[in-house]
Amino acid sequence: MKKLLLAGVVMMAISAPTFAADYSGLASPSSLGKSVASLNKQYKVGLKYDKDYQGYKNSETAACDLYVETDSKQLVKSIYISDKNDCKYTAKSNVTFNSTSTTIKDLLNQVKISEVQFNPGCFNCPSRIEIGDNLVINRAADKYYTEFEISGNSEYNDFIIKKTYGSKHSEANDFELRDELDQKDEKFFNRQDFKLAAIKTTDMKSVPWNYKIVAK
User: Fold this and answer.
1) How far is CA 190 from CA 119, 184, 194, 197, in A?
2) Any idea of the CA torsion for 119, 124, 128, 130, to the nearest 10 degrees?
3) Averages of pLDDT over each 10 residues, the chain, 216 residues
4) Cβ atoms of 200 and 144 closer than 8 Å
5) Could you please report the per-residue DSSP string of 80-119?
6) Rg from Cα positions in the chain
7) Cα(81)–Cα(99) distance, rounded to whole angstroms?
8) N or C: less crowded end of the chain, CB within 10 Å?
């Protein structure tokens, strides 16, 4: 009898449903403005407060790295999803983004050039560290914007330096001027000539590394 009961318990444990994290649902604009507890309950993402980060993170063993920030009311204001262990999701916001197959070209084909911006990750990057650029998609009608981390683009950086400083730029003051550009507000890069240069020099067939959605 005891053996039968034990076998029944084992079978129940095996047949019990396991709930996988719903990263696609989490990536939706509807997640913004909710509590972290609500996201954990709805999407099974296991977010916990991290003192060092001053925001919420999920388990290190999860397929995707999650970083969530909240506002003064403890409501979600940004969600960042980073690939780690074969992270797969489809985000449907101001564009549709499949984390494994959507290319930069696919993203740009869904919006107007006036709604995109290419922000350099840095101009004085440490040579041993690969720092990506950010493709920002921001439509006036939306209450949020999205960011996609893409490969750094030295050609684009060089174009910005040339257009910004012209003949004032030289080998002698290159480091100083690059440092100056690193201090610029992101609005500085919202220019038509910069956008066209970025589109021309960026690998349009590459898939962005990471996704972020932010409440305005």
Assistant:
1) 8, 12, 7, 12
2) 0
3) 47 52 97 98 97 94 96 97 89 97 98 97 81 96 97 94 95 94 96 97 96 98
4) no
5) EEEE-SS---EEESSSEEETTT--HHHHHTTS-GGGEEEE
6) 22
7) 10
8) N
